[in-house]
Amino acid sequence: MTVSVIFSTYNSEAWLEKVIIGFSVQTFKDFEIIIADDGSREATKNVIDKLRTEIDNPIIHVWQEDNGFQKSQILNKAILASTSDYLIFTDGDCIPREDFVQAHIDAREEGFFLSGGYYKLPMDISNAITREAIVTQSCFNLHWLRSKGLKWSTKNIKFLTSGLLAKILNLITTTNASWNGHNSSGWKKDLLAVNGFNQDMQYGGQDRELGERLVNKGLKSKQIRYSAICVHLDHKRGYVNEETWKKNLSIRENTRNNKVIKTLIGIDSNL
User: Fold this and answer.
1) Rounded to whole angstroms, how far apart are CA atoms 224 and 118?
2) How much of the chain is in helix, strand and coil states, percent to nearest 5?
3) What is the rounded distance in angstroms from the CA atom of residue 193 to the CA atom of residue 185?
4) Considering the entire predicted model, what is its pTM?
5) What is the pLDDT of residues 155-213, one digit of tens each?
6) Residue 251 in contact with residue 209, Cβ under 8 Å?
7) 15 is in which domain, residue-wise?
């Protein structure tokens, strides 16, 4: 495989199926899908097994027992399970446009990691997206989205950009090119060098902290937010709490101030 696509999931079968269908219609074909499952019920496995028979891409299902929000750990296990030297990370609630993987492949470069974004959809439009809308790419068509009630926003330009215009917008955007868990990629060797995600961090900035350590290692980041397009399906976030946020902010501050490169509790904890 040229590349591995890694994304997490937890008891969200309907959203997971839409995301997998999104990856099944990519213009670039030579990639594996690795699902980092943070303790989902049997229904998630059933969806994955069904889709394995319907799509061409190999699917690797990496599962761990439910022990609360342990996304960093399951992502590290997914990295270990990958078979390629380049890894794309997204989330199990983000449907990729058909050129999503190609955009990452085209922009990858030694000494860099790539930073993309997403477009957050409201719940009613998230529910309205069918398999047909994904296969035909209607869910990335601004006219279709507007017909479903999408409000006007300057962010809607993402659905109108490609090619040279996207490259120009990537260059001039003022948005920081951070590591975003929903849309980023990098070389496996670089992720191994920093020991992957910090497993002492739960929800809130653990992806950004990884990017900060990659920068401390000497990597630069490249913006692809107008080239690699995905839509984010709405959902509740019952795992968010203030105590965890404060802890994670403290870890990130230490990472920046002390130029931390390799986390103490990371990939090698799972070997």
Assistant:
1) 11
2) 45, 15, 40
3) 15
4) 0.96
5) 899 999 888 999 999 999 999 999 999 999 999 999 999 999 999 998 888 999 999 99
6) yes
7) 3-270
